[in-house]
Design a protein that fits this description.
The protein has two domains: about 120 residues, Rossmann fold, CATH 3.40.50.2300; about 60 residues, Winged helix-like DNA-binding domain superfamily/Winged helix DNA-binding domain (Arc Repressor Mutant, subunit A, Orthogonal Bundle), CATH 1.10.10.10. Helix 4 links the parallel strand 4 and strand 5. The model has no long low-confidence stretch (mean pLDDT about 90). The chain contains nine helices and five strands; from the N terminus they run E-H-E-H-E-H-E-H-E-H-H-H-H-H. By secondary structure, it is α/β, with parallel strands linked by helices. This is Transcriptional regulatory protein FixJ.
């Protein structure tokens, strides 16, 4: 029997006790799993980066701000969608949040319906991003099993080169190319050259 899927979670980071309680009371009756933290440091120490999740973070908190928390998550490679909330919103804050990749910047007092809609959107996005990240991780794992020569052949296959051209470029026999091509396609679970090209493109580190 397969283990039950872990539901997506809404992380809330706000130093205001009343705001944390308010968001719990708002979101849990809607069926959302919610975990609250009183500071960015507490969140970083307690959240699960492997879980499908979105983050609702206040801007102004003692210690690390919500904007700085988001920037730290981005630095760590997180793809978690982030909604920034604040009682002291201004244009520079909003611009900074959006440039970092926040999906919204919402001023207090919060419009509950707007927040609910944005959280639903964030969780849908989180599910999509998580699936993509898992696919990329699996591709990179398979790619690491290729030998150096198999990787050379794979790169040329992905570039659209035929076996004879690959043999000429690498200075090896056609039979050797065929063997390495077969092994590379098998290890990568690729069915066509186009499929292999898509995988190699996905596996490239982001700049």
């Amino acid at each position: 029997m397969k283990p039950a899927a872990v539901p997506p979670v809404v992380y809330v980071v706000d130093d205001d006790d009343a705001m944390r309680d308010s968001l719990l009371f708002l979101l849990e009756p809607l069926g959302h799993a919610v975990e609250v933290f009183a500071s960015a440091d507490a969140f970083l120490a307690g959240y699960d980066p492997r879980r499908v999740a979105c983050l609702v973070a206040d801007v102004r908190m003692p210690g690390m701000s919500g904007l700085a928390l988001h920037e730290e998550l981005v630095r760590r490679g997180s793809v978690m969608p982030v909604i920034i909330i604040t009682g002291h919103g201004d244009v520079p804050m909003a611009v900074r949040a959006m440039r970092t990749g926040a999906i919204d910047f919402i001023e207090k007092p919060l419009n509950n319906q707007v927040l609910i809609e944005r959280i639903d959107e964030a969780l849908r996005l989180a599910t999509t991003r998580h699936a993509a990240a898992q696919e990329i991780g699996a591709i990179r794992t398979r790619l690491a099993t290729l030998t150096a020569r198999e990787r050379e052949v794979a790169d040329l296959v992905a570039a659209g080169k035929q076996n004879k051209a690959i043999a000429h470029v690498l200075g090896i026999s056609l039979k050797t190319v065929e063997i390495h091509r077969h092994n590379a396609m098998d290890k990568m679970a690729a069915t066509t050259g186009a499929d292999l090209a898509r995988m190699l493109t996905l596996a490239r580190p982001e700049k």
